[in-house]
């Protein structure tokens, strides 16, 4: 579809002030360098630019060409947008001769325009081609993947990334369904899943978990998050802030564990009891964990599952 014919869909930024406040862009830090790893429709980026001084700099990333098209309308000389994953943050910064940044923001997952445009194939509510790629310029669509993947791997993805207890039945139904007719639309997949799911969760469409799982797999969301967190950490200046907003427990678990490991906070799965005096110096300080207010959730129901975590690079940490 010609992108110029797509009506512009809106994204309501979650935890807008809270996330930008957490970057602490003030005093000397207003002339720092910041990264918005998930530009979306630029709600956070625009607010960061409002707070930045004349010498400050903001580098934004997004995998989605439609987000990039929006970002390119920002003509501010302090701003630059990169079409690519935040997993490439380190090499992109290195390519610009930037050794350290003062803050990194990641507002994970998909934007409302991606969900609301049926042609992107993310939604089980509207019929559209079964695509689900954030970056439509590369990689395999969900339809292509479901056409070729083994039943065992489909089951594993749906179980691991959707935490779906009917993963076995759904994978079986997908493989039986594709033998009759290629699964090329969101509605077709949603119907196959609905028949395979035996008991319904209250208030939840039976396709919710499967769509989430396939989307995470197609976009390699969790693997890229791990790489992005590590890259952001290595590039953070002392006292630099890392602010991450997650929208489901799999993401939040990764963020929580990453920050906790850098802050020497004991992990439930750490086997050996380690005496405090034997622990290495913490490299990060945990600053806050926050959820949207009831008023924000009432105004924007998509904010309901958001969790924001903030950590700061310790000043004494080795670079
Ligand atoms: C929740 S939206 C961000 C909204 C944004 N903060 C705003 O205020 O408009 C998430 C965006 O991140 C992008 N995205 C998700 N994972 C990404 C990744 N690994 N690298 C770059 N962009 C990513 C998606 O394409 C989407 O546009």
Automatic annotation (TrEMBL):
It is an enzyme of class 2 (transferase). GO terms for molecular function: methyltransferase activity. GO terms for biological process: methylation. Its main location: cytoplasm. It catalyses: cytidine(1402) in 16S rRNA + S-adenosyl-L-methionine = N(4)-methylcytidine(1402) in 16S rRNA + S-adenosyl-L-homocysteine + H(+). It comes from the Bacteria. The keyword Chaperone does not apply. InterPro entries: RsmH (IPR002903), SAM-dep_MeTrfase_MraW_recog (IPR023397), SAM-dependent_MTases_sf (IPR029063). Gene3D superfamilies: Putative methyltransferase TM0872, insert domain, Vaccinia Virus protein VP39. Pfam families: Methyltransf_5. S-adenosyl-L-methionine binds at residues 42-44, 62, 86, 107, 114. Its EC number is 2.1.1.199. This is Ribosomal RNA small subunit methyltransferase H. The gene is rsmH.
């Amino acid at each position: 579809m010609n992108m110029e014919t797509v009506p512009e869909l809106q994204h309501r930024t979650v935890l807008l002030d809270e996330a930008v406040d957490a970057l602490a862009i003030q005093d000397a830090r207003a002339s720092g360098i910041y990264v918005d790893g998930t530009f979306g429709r630029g709600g956070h980026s625009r607010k960061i630019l409002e707070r930045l001084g004349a010498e400050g700099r903001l580098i934004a990333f997004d995998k989605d060409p439609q987000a990039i098209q929006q970002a390119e309308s920002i003509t501010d000389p302090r701003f630059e947008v990169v079409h690519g994953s935040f997993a490439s943050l380190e090499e992109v910064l290195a390519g610009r001769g930037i050794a350290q940044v003062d803050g990194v923001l990641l507002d994970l997952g998909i934007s409302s325009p991606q969900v609301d445009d049926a042609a992107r194939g993310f939604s089980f509510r509207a019929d559209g081609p079964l695509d689900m790629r954030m970056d439509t310029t590369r990689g395999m669509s969900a339809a292509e993947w479901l056409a070729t993947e083994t039943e065992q791997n489909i089951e594993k993805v749906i179980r691991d990334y959707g935490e779906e207890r009917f993963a076995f039945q759904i994978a079986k139904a997908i493989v039986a369904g594709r033998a009759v007719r290629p699964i090329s639309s969101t509605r077709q997949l949603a119907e196959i899943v609905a028949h395979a799911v035996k008991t319904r969760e209250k208030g939840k469409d039976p396709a919710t978990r499967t769509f989430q799982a396939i989307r995470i797999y197609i976009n390699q969301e969790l693997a890229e998050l791990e790489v992005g967190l590590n890259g952001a950490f290595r590039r953070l200046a002392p006292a630099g802030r890392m602010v991450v907003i997650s929208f489901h427990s799999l993401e939040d678990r990764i963020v929580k564990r990453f920050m906790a490991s850098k802050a020497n906070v004991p992990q439930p799965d750490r086997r050996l009891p380690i005496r405090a005096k034997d622990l290495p110096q913490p490299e990060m300080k945990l600053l806050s964990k926050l959820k949207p207010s009831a008023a924000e959730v009432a105004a924007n129901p998509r904010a309901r599952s958001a969790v924001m975590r903030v950590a700061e690079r310790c000043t004494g940490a080795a670079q």
